[in-house]
């Protein structure tokens, strides 16, 4: 007696996806952030979702715990300098004017930022000073 064997014949068509994406992630972007992704999408002639996924998955994140104590101190100092500049900018935006003492303070903060980069970043890299 012969067995009835069913034979599957491949009829072609689209192959089954091995990596099905069924999880959704929603994020908010500033206009500038969105423009960066949109421009990359246009230049590469690739869908914006594909570009965003590649940017997200290919980026690297450095944990603050991975930094040395000197790097942590430098990061805190840099944040303080940025806060000072933000306070000066906020005052200017609210009043619409800036006085001589604020200009002197801005110059000091900018000088500290330049020194910060010269002493930390440029000292530990092959980057050229600008």
Main beta-sheet strand count, sense and barrel state: none
Structural class: mainly alpha
Helix content: 55-70%
* Total count of domains: 2
Number of helices: 4
**Cα-to-Cα separation, first versus last residue:** 87 Å
Overall outline: elongated
Structural features, described:
This protein is mostly helical and 130 residues long. The protein has two domains: 28-59; 64-124. It has four helices and no strands. Helix 1 (31-44) crosses helix 2 (48-58) and helix 3 (69-95) packs antiparallel against helix 4 (100-119). The radius of gyration is 27 Å and the shape is elongated. The protein starts with 30 loop residues before the first helix and ends in an 11-residue tail after the last helix.
List the helices and strands and how they pair.
Blueprint: H1 31-44, H2 48-58, H3 69-95, H4 100-119
Helix pairs in contact: 1-2, 3-4
Provide the descriptors you would attach to this structure in a database record.
4 helices; 2 domains; 130 residues; mainly alpha; elongated
Short description:
The chain is 55% helix and 0% strand. It has helices at residues 31-44, 48-58, 69-95, 100-119.
């Amino acid at each position: 007696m012969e067995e009835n064997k069913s034979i599957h014949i491949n009829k072609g068509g689209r192959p089954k996806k091995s990596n099905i994406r069924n999880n959704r992630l929603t994020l908010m972007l500033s206009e500038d952030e969105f423009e960066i992704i949109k421009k990359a999408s246009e230049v590469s002639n690739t869908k914006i979702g594909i570009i965003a996924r590649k940017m997200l998955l290919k980026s690297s994140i450095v944990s603050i715990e991975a930094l040395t104590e000197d790097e942590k101190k430098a990061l805190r100092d840099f944040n303080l300098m940025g806060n000072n500049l933000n306070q000066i900018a906020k005052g200017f935006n609210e009043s619409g004017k800036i006085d001589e003492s604020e200009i002197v303070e801005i110059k000091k903060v900018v000088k500290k930022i330049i020194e910060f980069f010269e002493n930390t970043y440029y000292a530990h890299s092959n980057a050229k000073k600008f």
